[in-house]
Each structure stands twice: as structure tokens, then as C-alpha cells.
Design a protein that fits this description.
single chain, 218 residues, alpha+beta, Pseudouridine synthase, 11-stranded mixed beta sheet, 3 helices, 15% helix, 36% strand
């Protein structure tokens, strides 16, 4: 397990594609359980380890996940995420090339919980939530592009649905229109960086994968 940041209040770790954040029946060891095992061993804790789940990323997505090591940190981080006071940057490889090298996308997203699918609409529709993101092409070649994505809202499957609606589905994401799956069943989407004010120290915390060999590359 790769630890990206840790102090007395928080721990940020790298989630591999195909791993769940929380335990699910029939799935491999979750990131939650793996992190608890790490903390139990590192600090020689005799009993149960407290670990608060602050946010999640989809199972086929890789990248940064932050957990709270105390209930106080969990409460405050929940408020920070709820208030959208976290800068979230993703990177992804998409099929096709956007018409513009950088831009913003605004859609209305309607979720289908039965199919676990989010539909993107160009204009406001009933039972839908507004979703906003901005993107920039970092590199392109052979009909694919590496994009950086900045989220302004945090909707379920937002990036996947919005990029698909733009005509550039994420590589390997056959649920949202990719031409074929990735060999390992992942999708080429990654939580690349997170920055926020520390919930206790009131200092800026910035965590990213810029020096990591685990980042996705075109």
C-alpha cells in the first residue's frame, strides 16, 4: 500500500483500479480494510482501528483517497467536502480529440440507480442535478488524449458521463461508450490531486501524484 500523506488526523493513500474503498461482498480487500491493517501494524494497536471514510472513487478508477484517523477530523472533513472547499483534479485518457484544447462542460445529470448509470443532458430536465467541470488537453496521439479535469461539482459518475456526452469517452469505460474494455477492466481515470485546508491545523494540504509511477500516462 502506498501512503501519500499522513499525520495525527488524516491519511491519504493510493487506491488501485479494481479495488473498492469500502468492503463489498465478493470483492478483494478494500482500501478501508487495507489501511486499517497498515495502521494497526505501524502503531501496534491491540484493538480495532478507527478510520473514517470521507469520500469515495469508483471501483475501476485509481488515485488518491483520504481517510480520517479521528472522529473530529471526519466531522470537519465532511463539512469541507460538503461545502466544496476541496480542489479536485483528475487525469484521464479519452478516445477521440475534443474540438477545443481546453474548455468547460455544463450538463444536467440524471441517475438510474438500478442500472448504476448517469445520463447527461445538455439542458435542464426533471430529476436531474447540474454538473460542471473544466478540462484541458495535456497530450494527444493515435486518436487519444490525456486530459486534466477540474471538478466544480461532485456528482456520481460525473466525469464519465460528461466526457461521454462530449464525444470523448474514457478509455476502457464501455459503460459510457468506450470502444473496448481495458485488459485489466480498469478505466483510464485517476484522482490525481486534492488540496484543502487542514481540518485541525488550518494549513493548506496539497496531495498529488506528480512524482508517482502509478499515474496514468498516454
Amino acid at each position: 500500500m502506498k501512503v501519500l500523506f499522513e499525520d495525527n488526523h488524516l491519511i491519504a493513500v493510493f487506491k488501485k483500479a479494481g479495488q473498492t474503498v469500502q468492503p463489498e461482498p465478493g470483492k478483494p480487500l478494500s482500501l478501508d480494510d487495507e489501511t486499517k491493517q497498515y495502521l494497526k501494524t505501524k502503531y501496534n494497536k491491540p484493538g480495532a482501528v478507527y478510520l473514517g471514510v470521507i469520500h469515495r472513487i469508483d471501483m475501476p478508477v485509481s488515485g488518491i483517497v483520504i481517510f480520517a484517523k479521528t472522529s473530529k477530523a471526519l466531522t470537519r472533513m465532511n463539512e469541507i467536502f460538503h461545502d466544496r472547499a476541496v480542489k479536485k483534479t483528475y487525469r484521464c485518457i479519452v478516445e477521440g480529440v475534443p474540438k477545443q484544447t481546453k474548455g468547460s462542460l455544463v450538463h444536467w445529470l440524471r441517475q438510474d440507480p438500478v442500472k448504476n448509470f448517469t445520463k447527461a443532458f445538455e439542458s435542464k430536465v426533471s430529476n436531474a442535478s447540474e454538473a460542471k467541470l473544466s478540462y484541458e488537453v495535456l497530450k494527444q496521439g493515435k486518436g487519444k488524449c490525456l486530459l486534466t479535469i477540474n471538478l466544480e461539482t461532485g456528482r456520481k459518475h460525473q466525469i464519465r458521463a460528461q466526457l461521454s456526452a462530449m464525444g470523448c469517452p474514457i478509455l476502457g469505460d464501455i459503460k459510457y461508450g468506450a470502444s473496448k474494455p481495458n485488459p485489466d477492466q480498469s478505466i483510464s481515470l485517476q484522482s490525481f490531486s486534492l488540496s484543502f485546508m487542514h481540518p485541525v491545523k488550518n494549513e493548506l494540504v496539497s496531495i498529488d501524484l506528480s512524482e508517482s509511477t502509478d499515474q496514468i500516462k498516454l
